[in-house]
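Email to the structure team, subject: Aspartyl/glutamyl-tRNA(Asn/Gln) amidotransferase subunit C model.

Hi all, the expression group asked for a predicted structure before they design truncation constructs. Nothing fancy, just the C-alpha cells so they can compare against earlier work. One-line instruction: predict Aspartyl/glutamyl-tRNA(Asn/Gln) amidotransferase subunit C, return C-alpha cells.
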Amino acid sequence: MPAITREEVAHLARLARIELTDDELDHYAGQLGVILESVAQVGEVAAQDIPPTSHPVPLTNVFRADEVRPGLTAEEALAGAPVVDGEPAVEESRFRVPRILGEEA
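Reply from the structure team: attached below.
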C-alpha cells in the first residue's frame, strides 16, 4: 500500500517552491496517498497478455464518401437575403452588408 509521508510532501513542496502550512501538508499527504494507491491498483490490473492501447475500442473512419450533389443556385441562395428599405439586400449577385472598414467606393 503506497503511502506518502508528511515529510515527503514537504520535500516536494520545497522542490516546487510552494509554501505549505502544517494543515496543508497533512491534507495533501492524504490526497497524494489516495492517488498513489489508485495508480498501484491500475498497475495490478495490467497483465502481460493484454497489449497497451490508446482507445478501449477500435476506431474506424467515420467520414462519408465525397459525392457531388446539387446545391442552391445563386438566385435561390440570395432569395433569403434580408429586406432593407423594401428591397432585398443583394448587390452584384452577393449579399449586401454594411461597410465596416471605411473603404472607398
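The longest strand covers residues 83-84. The longest helix spans residues 22-45. Ping us if the truncation boundaries need rechecking.
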